[in-house]
Amino acid sequence: MVDKKKKRPIDEFPWQEYDKEEFKEKYPHLAKELEEEPGLVIEGYRVEEEEEEELMDFSGYNPTVIDFIRRCETDEEALEIINWMEEHGEITPELAKELRIKLVKEGVRSFGTKKEWGWYERHRKR
């Protein structure tokens, strides 16, 4: 009588151990990637930022380009803001270039969490 080990659902989880050759046979592309020199090094990552609870006095406050970008939903909207502000002399061409590079490389959320309608009212000193 052959004693077959009954597979349990946990046996199918990806963290199970593999023989190196079995792994190469089952996942050849992944095995190749793991054996190669790292091509992309991740130096850091962003986590969801918590909004500051500190209340501010906004009397006389003039929003910056970053404030306007944080209102955008998409990278395209942010690019429109950058272009408009540069064309109207609100920001320098050098700053516009830096902002475009950051936008292309990291996306609109890299400028901060989205400022929804009423943000200033919720964060002002009363």
From TrEMBL:
This is DUF2095 domain-containing protein.
